[in-house]
Amino acid sequence: MSKYFIFWGERYLFNPTFFQNLLSLVLLPLSWLYCAIMLIRYKISSEIDFGVDIISIGNLSVGGSGKTPLTTTLASHYKNVAIILRGYGRNSQGMYIVSDGKNILQDVDVSGDEAMIYAQKIPHAIVIVSENRKIAIQQAKRMGVDIIFLDDAYSKHDIKKCDLLIEVKTKNNRCLPSGAFRERLWHSKKALVLVDGIDFFRKTTLKDRCDKMSLITAIARPQRLDSFLPKVVSKNYFEDHHNFTKNEVESILQKDKTESALVTYKDYVKLEKFNIKLSLLDLEVEVDEKIYTYIEDYRAKKD
Questions:
Q1: pLDDT in tens, 136-178
Q2: Protein fold of 43-199+288-302
Q3: Which of 22, 61, 95, 121 has the fewest other C-beta atoms within 10 Å?
Q4: Using an 8 Å Cβ cutoff, are 118 and 153 in contact?
Q5: Where are the domains of the chain?
Q6: How many other CB atoms are found less than 10 A from the CB of residue 50?
Q7: Containing H/E element for 77?
Q8: Could you read off the pLDDT of 256-289 as tens digits, one per residue?
């Protein structure tokens, strides 16, 4: 039942039906109140300078936008780098060092799927999960980093940082609860807005391909994968950050009579422990050089 409501909510927020749009209009007064509160919260925030270069990769709406592959590409470009994120979907609380830049120190249950992606894809990066980003920043500084990337931290207005925002296209551009937007790009807030297909480009690599595959994935708005998919026997969508069991994956493969589960990297880090045949649809991005220039200009001015 929870899966039904999650997918219903994704349709409501990003591609509403006629009746969902009516509901959105009814909730508009609450959206205006919410947006006003978020504006006041921004206005009363005072930036803290932590004495280290901090880059935030985010988006204004709820749900997926490609933050993880973009952050992976940008952070890979730097030495003495840390990535800090909240760790949605993890079975832990508090701060954990997932990778110290030499070894992966936690399993995916503790780290969450996105942090494990960073730890595996960028072996030289320090990866920290924490609900409190400030504590994690101090920890990264003690570990000697020169630059920190914050995953999804636009709303942390009390942290001095350089904000990069991924533009998300939606037919419903209202604030919560009428629409998908958690915040607006406030007029006095400086941020570089990045457009998919102009400022960065997605590319996919299919590894360990089989003739018959079942797509099994737990990412936000999984229909985003459609343009990258090879031929599959079935598409099996689970709610974002879903914790799979071996039985539910095996039952899909048995029902479809397929050779492997086609997964994204976000799914792969959770399924690799099951010793099930996996085909990996690995999504990466190439970025325009102007993004690196923007970051370096920020770092130079900050110094």
A1: 999 999 999 999 999 999 999 999 999 999 998 887 889 999 9
A2: Rossmann fold (3.40.50)
A3: 22
A4: no
A5: 43-199+288-302, 202-286
A6: 17
A7: none
A8: 999 999 999 999 999 999 999 999 999 999 999 9
